[in-house]
Write a structure and sequence with these properties.
This protein has 352 residues and is mostly helical. It folds into two domains: 1-158, Actin-binding Protein, T-fimbrin, domain 1 (Orthogonal Bundle), CATH 1.10.418; 179-347, Helix Hairpins, CATH 1.10.287. 75% of the residues lie in helices and 0% in strands. It is built from nine helices and no strands.
Length: 352
Amino acid sequence: MLTNYSQSIQEEVFVEWVNTCPVISHPCSSIADLSNGVLLLDVLAEIDSTWFKPARSNDMGGQWLLKHSNLKRLVSTMSRYYEQILGIPFDKISHVNLTDIAKFASVQEILKLCQLVLYITVASENNAMVVQRLQQLPQQSQGVVMHCIEQIDSIRSAATGHPTAQPSSSSSGAHVGTPRSSFNEEATYRNQNDIARLAVEKEELEASYRKLIEEHAQLRYKYDELEFEKGNLQLRLQEMDKAVTQANETGRTDSIMRTEIEHLKQDLQKSEDRRQEAEVLLEQQTMAIEELTQKGEELKERAEQTSRLKDQLDESRHAAEKLQKAENVIEKYKKKLEDSSDLKRQIKASQL
C-alpha cells in the first residue's frame, strides 16, 4: 500500500474522496463504513453502470457473511474490468483479504480495496468528472491520490510493455529478362488488396469481440447476483433451522415455521437451478471469447506477415529500378562502343 503516508492520513483521504461522489446512497463517516462494499459500488456505478450495479440492500447489519458475499461480487467484477477493459492482469496486484474486511473491518485491507476502486475511476473513459473533483481536494490529499494511482500505473506499464519488433530484411535477386514494372504493379495491387481485406476482417472481429465482452459481463453480473441471492437464502435457512431446533428443545414446534423453511428450501433450489444455467451459459461465452481471441491472434500474425511481404516487395522494387538503370547505362556504352568500331573500320578503309 502507500508507505509514504501514515495510515490515518490515508483513511481521511479515502473517506474524503468517497464523499465527493454525488450518487452515494449515504455519506461516509469513517473508513469502516466501506467494509460492506456498498459505497464503493455506488462510486463505480457512476463510472460504468454496465459493469457495476449498486447493492440491492444497504443495511447488512452485523451479518459478516452478507458483507463478504457483497465484497466478493464487487472484487470479482473489478478483476474482470481490470483485465478486459484496462488490460491489467489482476493477479499482479496486491491481494485483498475480504474476510478480514467483512469480519473485522481491517483498515489496511479496506485501503487496498479503495486503491483498486480509485484507479478504475481515473483510468476509465468517463473519468472527466472524477478528475475534476479530485483536483478540488486539498494538496496533501491530491498527493496521496497521485501516489495511489502511480503504484498501479507501474504495474500496468510492466504488464503491457512489449519490445519493439525489428523489421526483417532480405535480399532478392532480379532476373534480367523479367518485365519488372508489370510484376511490381501486380504485386503491389495484390498486397494492397490483402491489407484492405485484413483491415475489414480486423474491424469485424473487434466489433464481435466487444459485443461478446458486453454480453459476458452482463451474464457474469447475473451469475454473481444469483450467488448473492443463494447466500442470503442459505443464511435465512440456517437461522430458521436454529429456531426450529430451539423450538423442538422447548417442545413448542411451530408448524408455520416449518412451512416457511420448506418455502425457503424451494426458493434455494430454484436459485441453484438458475445459477447452474447461468454457469453453463458463462462457460459457453468464455469458450467463444477464447476462440475469438485466437482468431484475433491469427489475424494479427497474417497482418504482420503481409507487412513483411510489403517491405520485401519495396526492397525488390528498389533493386529492380537500380538494375534497370544499370542496364540502360550498359546499353548506352554498348552503342557507343559499336559506333566507335564502325568509325575505326571507316578510318582503315579510307587509309587503304
